[in-house]
Amino acid sequence: MLMATNMISFVIIITLISVSLCQIRSDDLVLQYAAVIFRHGDRTPVEPYPTDPYKNESMWPVKFGQLTNTGKKQHYALGKWLRERYRHMISEEYDPTQIHVRSTDVDRTLMSVEANLAGLFPPVGNSIWDNQLQWQPIPVHTMPTNRDEVLAMQRKCPAYDIALEELQESKEYTDRLSQYQGLMDYLTAYTGAKIKDYNDISYVYNTLYIETLYNFTLPNWTRTVYPDKMREPSCYSFRTATMTPLLARLKVGPLIQEIVTKMANTTLTYPAGYSNAVKLSIYSAHDITVANVLHALGMFDGNCPVYTATILFELLYSQNTAEHFVRISYRNFTGIAEPYVLRIPYCGEVCSFNRFVTLYENLLNINWDFECAKKNIPILGMSMLYSVGILAALFVAHKIIFNRLPRNRLNIMYSNVNTDTKIPDKITEAQKK
Ligand SMILES: *[C@@H]1O[C@H](CO)[C@@H](O)[C@H](O)[C@H]1NC(C)=O
Ligand SMILES: *[C@@H]1O[C@H](CO)[C@@H](O)[C@H](O)[C@H]1NC(C)=O
Ligand SMILES: *[C@@H]1O[C@H](CO)[C@@H](O)[C@H](O)[C@H]1NC(C)=O
Ligand SMILES: *[C@@H]1O[C@H](CO)[C@@H](O)[C@H](O)[C@H]1NC(C)=O
Ligand SMILES: *[C@@H]1O[C@H](CO)[C@@H](O)[C@H](O)[C@H]1NC(C)=O
After folding, report:
1. In terms of domain of life, where is this protein from (predicted)?
2. Is 344 in contact with 293 (CB distance < 8 Å)?
3. Is the pTM of this model over 0.90?
4. Among 92, 131, 242, 430, who pairs with 248 as Cys (CB 3.0-4.6 Å)?
């Protein structure tokens, strides 16, 4: 019975997708709004491991965890690239009504976005204020880490902590992790740090990776494990924070809600001909932010996000059909090239805005403060009762199109705790020698 219902909704979805796709012509799509989330650029290790031969800060070009000149160049280049991409959407002169910039409250993300904005908004015309300086100040907003649930995703949320603990104590989770016990014991022995979870492996992996970038010779003990055996569990660490629908909802809901609310605002003010709504939102953050967003959307490909990795959320308007679409692209390289257009699960590369909102209802209808305070909430369902704002507003605004959508909630595929990825062979005593 359930199968049959699912099958029917599947057929309906496919039909809807094909109907819309026939109407989409890319030359007909106009970009109306973009939200850009990126990782900072090249940096030094945040904290080398205790036995690290390169733990003396004076061996590095800048203090630990800081953005390097390479990182500044990477973001300056990305800013120039964003200028090219959005030259028809935002004016060449800085206009505070068109753009909003937010960063986590960390030196390297603040500095990255400043370098980026230097590339995006070189002064022109009236904004030139010093002939010697190809730069103008652009406001960057931030929020203390422990009060920021939107971008830092670090504000205290008891319900989240409980759900994460439950996950980490689950048999599937501990079983999968135990396959790395040999690796973790080996790393614990050689690094002097207690390595007991994916995040800890990732921390060592990341430090070793940076040391290779800076041409430091890695100690001999790393040869049997770095990079191959450590890569998979390191990158797997990026899945855990959003592993279940509830974790994803509490972690990423506020950010997706903010972006989609801005999109909704744009769909309401366009195509009336004139819009005061913000056109470009820039979010400067971390690898974990990028991974959390991709994973919560069911789009994480399993690779650790690189420096300057960028997710582009774009709202497109079709003049032919007078409909709005969402396109999500991912730039997972530091050089300059066209980003990958990602497939939105159950929808495609260009997804009707209304369907997008339905697909991601789990992230969008969250009442974060209320749900975080609850010690134990039934997953999904109940939150509907408390959700205010966004869905109701969207429902009214798009009632007609909404009615065409399938009634069932579509479940986005999250990674299974037991993925079929290759587990490295356990490291034997013999290999340690
Ligand atoms: C770090 O290196 C500098 C320069 O070689 C040296 O003066 C300093 O004593 C070292 N610090 C430590 C803690 O080893
Ligand atoms: C590391 O070595 C490579 C190859 O010699 C060089 O291109 C690169 O600039 C070096 N990196 C640093 C940070 O010195
Ligand atoms: C590391 O291994 C290389 C080659 O096997 C050897 O020449 C070198 O002496 C070793 N270094 C240390 C510190 O053991
Ligand atoms: C929607 O746009 C209007 C007009 O620019 C603005 O005043 C309002 O704050 C925007 N709302 C959101 C949620 O962005
Ligand atoms: C970059 O992202 C695309 C889309 O997720 C993926 O197919 C590709 O393998 C990624 N490349 C790297 C080097 O991570």
Report:
1. Eukaryota
2. no
3. no
4. 242
Our answer on whether the CB atom of 301 is closer than 6 Å to any ligand 5 atom is yes
Ligand 1: nearest atom to the Cα of 57: 1
Q: Are 276 and 97 within 8 A, CB to CB? A: yes
Element (H, E) at 353: helix 353-359
Q: Which two tokens stand for residue 168?
A: 């980490």
From 274, 276, 280, the mutation candidate for ligand 4 (largest count of ligand atoms within 8 A of CB) is 276
Assigned token pair, 275: 């819009």
Write out the two tokens for 390: 């966004």
pLDDT in tens, 199-232: 999 999 999 999 999 999 999 999 999 999 999 9
Residues 141-153 pLDDT 10s:
999 999 999 999 9
The tokens for 74 are: 């990477």
> Helix crossing, 389-397 with 245-269: angle to 10°?
40
pLDDT value at 394 more than 60: no
- Alpha carbons 74 and 76: distance in angstroms, whole number: 6
242 CB less than 6 Å from ligand 5?
no
- Total Cβ atoms within 10 A of residue 336: 11
User: Phi/psi of residue 314, each to 5°?
Assistant: -125, 135
Residues classed as catalytic: 40, 287
294/311 Cα distance (integer angstroms) = 8
Residue pair 94/132 in contact by the 8 Å Cβ criterion: no
What count of other Cβ atoms lies within 10 Å of the Cβ of residue 418? Answer: 10
> Separation of 270 CA from ligand 4 center, angstroms?
12
Helices marked H in 214-329 — which ranges?
228-240, 245-269, 287-296
Instruction: Report yes or no: 419 and 177 within 8 Å, Cβ to Cβ.
Output: no
